[in-house]
């Protein structure tokens, strides 16, 4: 369903098998070196969702090849199968003509536990207008999809559940968005995950 121009929500895009496989992969990527870390913003803030990156390491507000704000290890590689998953997602959500020519080369994986949330922000650190692919695992969250002008209203709240795909292309690529809350205990029992995981797949537009 199109939530806004270029923003398409596909509930239950990942079946049980693919959700389990993606979770297992995420648990491996979370391990050190270059594993899960707490992100500190230059203004003195601390993000409550913890993060691990593949391909390029995101730190507020740029990309690097090493964990410049953590253990300084080289960032883990971005596997080819994740790139295929991203292209499949864009083709299913927006159509084959929307699949970018440049390869997907970044995964940002956010782990939400306890009272973790994410404030309203825009993702502007990629030098590519390619659609961003978002996959959710575990607890349901309230995802707030805003406008391109301000971090305030008007916005639309959408529940994202385990297995859901959301693709942000076209004008929605630069829209403000955030996660005001996660609904505890809503993960599918067969997944074995307490909390929520979100995987975003992106095109850096940076030189390999
Ligand atoms: C709209 N993640 O990683 S997913 C992020 O659930 C991020 O962890 C949230 O915002 C999460 O930057 C929201 C939905 C999402 C992700 C990336 C976007 C929406 C987006 C990029 C551009 C526009
Ligand atoms: Fe974002």
TrEMBL record:
InterPro entries: Alkb, AlkB-like, AlkB-like_sf, Oxoglu/Fe-dep_dioxygenase_dom
Molecular-function GO term, any one: broad specificity oxidative DNA demethylase activity
Cofactor(s) needed for function: Fe(2+)
Keywords: Dioxygenase, Iron, Metal-binding, Oxidoreductase
Residue ranges annotated for the Fe2OG dioxygenase domain, each copy included: 103-205
Statement: the UniProt record of this protein carries the keyword Metal-binding: yes
Domain of life: Bacteria
Annotated Fe cation binding sites: 121, 123, 177
Cofactor descriptive note: Binds 1 Fe(2+) ion per subunit.
Coiled-coil intervals, chain numbering: none
Protein's name in the database: Alpha-ketoglutarate-dependent dioxygenase AlkB
Source organism (scientific name): Streptomyces seoulensis
């Amino acid at each position: 369903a199109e939530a806004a121009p270029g923003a398409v929500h596909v509930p239950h895009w990942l079946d049980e098998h693919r959700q389990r496989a993606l979770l297992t992969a995420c648990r491996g990527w979370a391990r050190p070196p270059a594993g899960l870390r707490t992100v500190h913003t230059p203004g003195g803030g601390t993000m409550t969702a913890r993060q691990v990156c593949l391909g390029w390491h995101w730190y507020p507000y740029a990309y690097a090849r090493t964990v410049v704000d953590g253990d300084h290890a080289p960032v883990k590689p971005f596997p080819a199968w994740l790139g295929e998953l991203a292209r499949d997602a864009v083709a299913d959500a927006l159509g084959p003509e929307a699949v970018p020519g440049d390869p997907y080369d970044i995964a940002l994986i956010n782990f939400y536990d306890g009272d973790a949330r994410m404030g309203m922000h825009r993702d502007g650190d990629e030098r590519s207008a390619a659609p961003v692919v978002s996959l959710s695992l575990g607890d349901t969250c309230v995802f707030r999809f805003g406008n391109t002008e301000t971090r305030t209203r008007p916005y639309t709240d959408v529940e994202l559940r385990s297995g859901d795909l959301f693709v942000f292309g076209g004008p929605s690529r630069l829209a403000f968005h955030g996660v005001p809350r996660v609904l505890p205990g809503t993960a599918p029992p067969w997944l074995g995950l307490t909390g929520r995981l979100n995987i975003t797949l992106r095109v850096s537009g940076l030189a390999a």
